[in-house]
Amino acid sequence: MSPATAFRRLNPVERTILTPELSNASPRARQGLIGMLQGAGDPVFAAVVEEARALLRELWRTANPATLILPGSEEAGLEAVVLNLVEPGDPVLVVVTGDAGRRIAAAAERAGARVRLVEAPWGEAVGPGAFRDALQRERPRLAAVAHGDPSTGVLQPLPELAALAHEHGALLAADVCSTTAVVDVRLDDWGLDACWAGSQKGLSAYPGLVLASFGERALTRHRERTVPVASWERDLAALCAPERRYETFPAPLLYALVEVLQLASEQQMAYRVRRHENRRDALVAGLAALGVEVLVDPDARLPSVTIARVPGGVDEHWVRDELREQFRIEIAPGSGPRSEPVWRIGIMSHSAQPGFIAALLGLLEALLAEQGHVIPAPGTAVRAAVRVLER
């Protein structure tokens, strides 16, 4: 073997992941990875799939039989919903509170829809009045929305939007990627017709699985299609067929998902909601002590993602690089059209640990001071967070 083809052991650096896209994997998820592979036709594997689907129905508070777990990224979940519920020429109304809404709009346009937007000012949710006006004006067959937008940190209320959509003859589909297992998502009570998420955020499993659910109105819309779904692999009729339900896909990722779904069931959502809100509030208190402004009105803040304005004169790239390379802590830069620099800090599931928050705040204080930022009350950021944290 020539030197050019020499191999070495893969040894990824272990980091504290505090980004909107990913959380640190739960030890329960890692436990799932050691399970033995089983064939797609194995009855034992089929039982694992059915347990995962039942646990997901419990988590999302739904009785939908078409609650599915599929291989792919969370964006594949977006495409599965859009491709099954949109036909070429359909009017589609997309609620936009940030990049996630614009992504939905782009997917619908590629499916041939006539897309119209109802947009909120940056950092705000779309109100029911604006949504009602857009429904009356556009008469869509489908309305779609991101429950939580990780580019802006906005939590968009859904129950009233679902009721208004149905009053105007539209379905409502929701991206619940940033809220699943963080906010108490209630598909049936809220009247959502379809939703999707990934496995790697609020559940702290591994990336690579799509979570999706379709209600009866969505299934009826699919059955009434006049043209075939543009994807054989994502056609809802095929996905719900017994011969496809247990198709070969990354079984270890499924085992890991089952472990964290079991954990969520054991903990119950009341605990998880309180925990995530408390960790967000502790982070906000610590940032305030550093003189770092947190954006988004408190009533509209997403529990899982906090948006902080970078203080003037601070090199936000340098701070992030130092956190990542020297201290193995990763936070995210801004995303979308907003011109001023911000940091996006994800506090989700296994990453929502008091020690992680304290370490981030302590290091931010040192790095900001090194950049010349005047700390209003030196040495108090961690204490401010600790006073808020629930034990």
Short description:
By secondary structure, the protein is of the alpha/beta class.
Structural features, described:
The structure is a single chain. The chain is an alpha/beta fold and 391 residues long. It folds into two domains: 27-267, Type I PLP-dependent aspartate aminotransferase-like (Major domain) (Aspartate Aminotransferase, domain 2); 269-388, Aspartate Aminotransferase, domain 1 (Alpha-Beta Complex). It contains 15 helices and 14 strands. The strands form four sheets. The chain has a seven-stranded mixed sheet with strand order 2-10-9-8-5-3-4, with helices on both faces. A three-stranded antiparallel sheet has the order 11-14-13, covered by helices on one side. α2 crosses α11 (251-267), α5 (128-138) packs parallel to α6 (159-167) and α13 (316-327) packs across α14 (354-370). The longest helix is centred in the last third of the chain and has 21 residues, at 269-289.
How widely separated are the two ends?
A: 56 Å
Major sheet, described briefly?
7 strands, mixed
Tally of alpha and pi helices: 15
Average pLDDT reading = 94
Shape: globular
Total domains: 2
What is the CATH topology of the largest domain? Aspartate Aminotransferase, domain 2
Which percent band covers the strand fraction? 15-25%
Unreliable parts = none
Please state the structural category: alpha/beta
Percent helix: 40-55%
- Regarding CATH, which class of the largest domain? Alpha Beta
* CATH homologous superfamily title of the largest domain: Type I PLP-dependent aspartate aminotransferase-like (Major domain)
